[in-house]
Amino acid sequence: MKKSTFEKLHRINYLGAEMDALYHQACRRLGISDSAMIVLYTIYDNGGTCLLSHIYKQSGVSKQTINSAMRKLENDGILYLEQENGRGKRVRLTSDGTDYVEKTAARLYAAECEVFSDWAGEEIDTYIRFMEKFNDMFRIQIDKMED
Predict the structure, then answer these.
(1) Which end of the chain, N or C, is surrounded by fewer C-beta atoms within 10 Å?
(2) What are phi and psi of 81, to 5 degrees?
(3) Residue 62 C-alpha from the chain's centroid
(4) At 83, which helix (H) or strand (E)?
(5) Are 110 and 30 in contact (CB under 8 A)?
(6) Under a CB-based contact definition with an 8 Å cutoff, are residues 36 and 93 in contact?
(7) pTM for this model (two decimals)
(8) Closest Cα partner for 81 from 125, 109, 43?
(9) CA 65, CA 69: separation in Å to the nearest integer?
(10) Looking at the DSSP assignment, which residues form a beta bridge with residue 92?
């Protein structure tokens, strides 16, 4: 690998880690665990209710981590599960949960929207396009790896 490519990869990895740290810091300031935030953010992003399977897919976090966060949120009266068609389950917020989301996930969502409000639409589209391109190409490289 060329030195310049190595240096750029190092910078990209650092920025990814810094972004993870910023989200963790936001969760700490809002008084919520990272995994609970992921669950509530996904529900908020989907209009206040969603299938449990969407949380698994959209979060990229293990089912075990999501299930642990869900159990705690359910025990705290923030959300509940109901049977959906077939084997699916729908996640819904309680009234207390709706209030809690406004104090947590909605504030994080608003902060992200505020950041993007200063970007031109073309910049946002370019950012998305590059992220998608990287993910697609990286997925191919991972698929080539042997166990």
Answers:
(1) C
(2) -105, 145
(3) 12
(4) strand 79-83
(5) no
(6) no
(7) 0.88
(8) 43
(9) 6
(10) 49, 80
